[in-house]
Amino acid sequence: MDMITSADSHQLPMLQKVLGAATEEASQAMSVWTGGKISLSLDCVREIPIEMVSQEFDLGMDLLTMVVLTIEGEIGGTMILTFDEENGRRLAASLFKQDVSTESEWSELERSALNETGNILGCAYFNAIARLVNSEFVPSPPIFLQDYGVCVLQQALMEQVQETTDVLICQTTFLQGRETLNWKILFLPDPKMRETLRAST
């Protein structure tokens, strides 16, 4: 587990435990959704200065397919599910047992498949955290995007710039058997969520 230390680095292992439990629950939901083909693994929990985020979480310069969910309310955060074009379309095709589309535009069915994937993952993840911190979260509907990953990440961070100088990010990877897929989840809790997570550890 790769972690970057911070002033609160002694709490990172405890935060890792909380977020690891949420990842495990999301993994179980993903396994059911994909017929046992896909699972999740917690990659890292990092607390780093905001200005370093884009460097540390290099999403490349290519357009990505993403599903974004947010937790609405006083305690919040953003979940960004990212795919490259090929892997996103493969997932959509496998869920509906169809051939991988070669059309330039994504169909409504493909978009729906990825949005539902984000919804299932987000609900499982957020519900697990809500139970662990004895709170209640209301996730937004999933939003399908095709954009540069760094732009979406920076937009998610903009809301935190006025409140904090560093950010907590949890990164999760996807596995098909033992093969690591080119999919990722980035979870960015806001400062109040971070305080709630710390208080629960």
Automatic annotation (TrEMBL):
Entry keyword Hydrolase: yes
GO terms, biological process: chemotaxis
Domain of life: Bacteria
Keywords noted in UniProt: Chemotaxis, Hydrolase
Gene3D superfamilies xref list: CheC-like
GO molecular function, one term: hydrolase activity
Name the UniProt record assigns to this protein: Chemotaxis protein CheC
Organism: Bremerella alba
